[in-house]
Amino acid sequence: MPRTGQRLKSRKPAAVKPAGPKPRTVDPLAHLALTAYMDAHFEWMLVTGYSPNTVQARRQSLRRFIAWCDERGLQQPADITKQVLDRYQRHLFYYRKPDGAPLTLGSQHGALAPLKTWFKWLARENHILYNPASELDLPKLPKHLPRAILSVQEVEAILAEADPDTPYGLRDRAMLELLYSTGLRRMEIANLALYDVDPNRRLLFVREGKGAKDRVVPIGQRALAWLDRYLIEARPQLIAVEREALFVTDYGEPVSPPFVAAHVKRYMDFAGINKPGATHLLRHAMATHMLEAGADVRVLQALLGHAQLNTTEIYTHVSIEHLRAIHDATHPARLQRQEAATAQALAEPAQQWLDSLASDED
């Protein structure tokens, strides 16, 4: 019997029918000249190799700018000057969301950066005489640590919540294990196909990840065991017709990135872990735990698919175990003083770690 006030958890996801066709809506910006130039710019981006996800993200930013220009009677690209762009940048800075919070510097940067590419294209295609965004100064992006990091115990608690006695629970367990083992993004795991898994060499081929870049990552033995069990026992029960997708929904359709994120968040709630984030938390946890166990930061760069090493180096600041060992070995205000040999043994790797941090800063 449940205790008074206890909330019973149901591991079986509610069945949701595939969404039907969306009703047509009238685009309020379709009649504007700037919108036509925007569409031509996006066609050029797709032709020259930009991913559809990049185009979609920039579309939202440019539409926001076009709506702002329409309110002020700016209809043609030639109407946009450097002073106009400066006014728009100040507008973003002083803008307040419905809850009264300002836009973060990252949001302001994301709204302004596509304008530089757009006006550079407009000038190159001779739609305008000069590029008014060439001297636009973008906000400096702050370097933030991840808001939350899962411990090994918390990750294991999340994984244990998936019930492997049901087909969908076994699918979720294999998906969670693969996320933690490989550090894949939710988009990347949703795009996995059956032929992307090489069980003999314990490899996973990530095709067209972020930035349309392919990479190969190893799979841990435990994750591969759960994946094999899912492919043999659960997946045949979930599909009605054969599909290439590795993970499928209860209706046999390929999973989507929101589906993956919602299921990770669901099992976090079951485990009683109330931390912001979902899929990316497992990615952060994988990188942090491997770094604390001695993995090289350049190895993590290859595993995570980071284009720049400084993106991966954020985990050197999150990994606290080495810093704690240095503090315990060197700080004079400790409870028990170490023996000379022990202190010397701890001091050598501590100094190496400090030297590596100094070289990273240089």
UniProtKB/TrEMBL annotation:
<keyword id="KW-0238">DNA-binding</keyword>
<dbReference type="InterPro" id="IPR002104">
    <property type="entry name" value="Integrase_catalytic"/>
</dbReference>
<dbReference type="Pfam" id="PF00589">
    <property type="entry name" value="Phage_integrase"/>
</dbReference>
<keyword id="KW-0233">DNA recombination</keyword>
<dbReference type="GO" id="GO:0015074">
    <property type="term" value="P:DNA integration"/>
</dbReference>
<keyword id="KW-0229">DNA integration</keyword>
<dbReference type="InterPro" id="IPR010998">
    <property type="entry name" value="Integrase_recombinase_N"/>
</dbReference>
<dbReference type="InterPro" id="IPR050090">
    <property type="entry name" value="Tyrosine_recombinase_XerCD"/>
</dbReference>
<dbReference type="GO" id="GO:0003677">
    <property type="term" value="F:DNA binding"/>
</dbReference>
<feature type="region of interest" description="Disordered">
    <location>
        <begin position="1"/>
        <end position="23"/>
    </location>
</feature>
<keyword id="KW-0159">Chromosome partition</keyword>
<dbReference type="InterPro" id="IPR044068">
    <property type="entry name" value="CB"/>
</dbReference>
<dbReference type="GO" id="GO:0006310">
    <property type="term" value="P:DNA recombination"/>
</dbReference>
<protein>
    <submittedName>
        <fullName>Site-specific tyrosine recombinase XerC</fullName>
    </submittedName>
</protein>
<dbReference type="Pfam" id="PF13495">
    <property type="entry name" value="Phage_int_SAM_4"/>
</dbReference>
<dbReference type="InterPro" id="IPR013762">
    <property type="entry name" value="Integrase-like_cat_sf"/>
</dbReference>
<feature type="compositionally biased region" description="Basic residues">
    <location>
        <begin position="1"/>
        <end position="14"/>
    </location>
</feature>
<dbReference type="GO" id="GO:0007059">
    <property type="term" value="P:chromosome segregation"/>
</dbReference>
<dbReference type="InterPro" id="IPR004107">
    <property type="entry name" value="Integrase_SAM-like_N"/>
</dbReference>
<feature type="domain" description="Tyr recombinase">
    <location>
        <begin position="140"/>
        <end position="328"/>
    </location>
</feature>
<feature type="domain" description="Core-binding (CB)">
    <location>
        <begin position="32"/>
        <end position="123"/>
    </location>
</feature>
<dbReference type="InterPro" id="IPR011010">
    <property type="entry name" value="DNA_brk_join_enz"/>
</dbReference>
